[in-house]
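Exam prep: given the inputs below (a chain plus MRU), describe the expected output before reading on.
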Amino acid sequence: MLVNGKHYRTVWMEGKSVHMINQPLLPHQFVIYTAGDHRQTAEAIRTMIIRGAGAIGVAAGYALAQAVLEAPDAGFEGYISDAFKTISSTRPTAQNLFYALDRVSKAVKAAAGPDKARQLAVNEAESIADEDVASGKRIGELGNSLIKDGYRIMTHCNAGWLAFADWGSALAPVYFAARDNKKVFVWVDETRPRLQGANLTAWELSSENIPLAVISDNAAGYYMRRGEVDLMIVGSDRIAVNGDVANKIGTYEKAVLAHENGIPFYVAAPTSTIDWNCQSGVDIPIEERSGEEVLFITGMDNDGTLRKVRIAPDCVKARNPAFDVTPAEYIKAIITEKGIVEPKNLCSLRN
Ligand code: MRU
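Solution:
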């Protein structure tokens, strides 16, 4: 997508370095962060400089490719195996991370010798990035068919282009609808505790001149009940074979509210987010992040300084599950690059 008239992907590789848009600084500052080795890229995933399942997957593929480039000929496999462990321990829920590590590992194992492995690892990581972009574009084209002129769409968290290499999943249909001159309006849940909705989704949509309102997370039911939401689309971090969907904490309650109010609830995700080894939502590992993310909030003050401030009493503890699971029964369909399918028919996408 364009930022100040220039096309960017969220993350890309040049030589041995991985560059990414520094997301915790948005919407206040647009800064590119450069990770010079695989450990720095892994740390950027862990600290959410880059986040969103698709973008995490692309970054993880690049990180492993970096490790393959770094690995000395003596001890080549051991170095890569250690790097694999480092990268895979960063974000446990995002299926695309494991999908990308698996693909790059297989490319390395198929290579005859370190030099060939280095070339194949980088090629595979680039293919993962290109496929991520192509999937987002196709999800946008297909999902556009669900959006009527004048629709008011609600979304949760950020499943836009910042959550992928480009285009996004939940927001891609909105971008295609807007390009088709449909009038669309987006309700943007702020998405506590890290505010991906208020910070990132609002920034993306306003950059595309798409009308929106940021709402506090607990206002969603109010607008649904008033008949002011026509459609809800969210992304996903991991999808189980039975159609249960893990997504940002708070998604489950929105799905229940949408069901109660007769609002179609869609999930948009590339098939790389489906975990074919995970039979149901209870098997999906849910990341629990630091309680600090709940107890403190970061924003820009009137002087233009980014400040982190405490919003709860000293010495209280917090719990901070990063994701929840929405049972398949609440999901009308899943929009993938291979088609729009009901959760119960997910297996038809397996090839
Ligand atoms: O913790 P994050 O920001 O990496 O989580 C991202 C989400 O949960 C988004 O809601 C998104 O739908 C899934 S990533 C495409």
